[in-house]
Amino acid sequence: MTVEHRVREKTISWQDPLPSAELARTMTGLDYLTAIADGRIPGAPISSHLGMRVDSVREGEVVFAASPDESLYNPIGTVHGGVAATMLDSAVACAVHSTLPAGVGYTSVELKINFIRAITSASGEIRARGRVVKSGSRIAFAEGELRDENDVLLATASSTCLVIQP
Q1: 24: closest CA among 90, 111, 102, 87?
Q2: 34 with 54: CB under 8 angstroms?
Q3: DSSP string, 35-96
Q4: What is the predicted pLDDT for the residue at 8?
Q5: pTM metric for this prediction
């Protein structure tokens, strides 16, 4: 059996992330993420690959949005689960970041994803909302949901982040 393959192309551009990372250390997490959402600071390069953007930011809550296309498909014809995981990891971790003062960092130490429904290009815009559940001086806990444009639940996440004091 022979399958006809039609070649498609996608060009991805991004900016050097290191100047933004340096700037992040001088700003509160909320101010930094708001500047990314407003387009004053470029987002992370991974955002360019996934067509992902910061949609909204408030203290303790961050929303990322993207409209997946076929370039994100796995071999069985749906969006790869890593896209949902990346969007949810970004949302929950940035929700933690939004609560941190200047000079304090964080890193994900645990991420649990539950995949509920398949995602395709027909899902339309998908939105990952992350929110802080509990934040302390050393550890923060966050949870998130990924929904399609009709508000159908696609995946959930829970995360633990290590808060890194200077």
Answers
A1: 102
A2: no
A3: HHHTTSS---HHHHHHT-EEEEEETTEEEEEE---GGGB-TTSSB-HHHHHHHHHHHHHHHH
A4: 87
A5: 0.93
What is the rounded distance in angstroms from the CA atom of residue 95 to the CA atom of residue 33? 9
**C-beta of residue 66 within 8 angstroms of C-beta of residue 53:** yes
- Return the closest-CA partner of residue 56 out of 19, 98, 102: 98
For 88, list phi and psi in degrees, rounded to 5.
-70, -40
pLDDT in tens, 55-106: 999 999 999 999 999 999 999 999 999 999 999 999 999 999 999 999 999 9
Q: What share of the chain is helix, strand, coil (3-state, %, to 5)?
A: 25, 35, 40
Quote the CA–CA distance of 143 and 133 in Å, as a whole number. 7
C-alpha 88/C-alpha 80 separation (Å) is 13
Residue type at position 59: E
User: Which structure tokens are listed for 150?
Assistant: 């009709």
Tell me the residue type at 129.
R
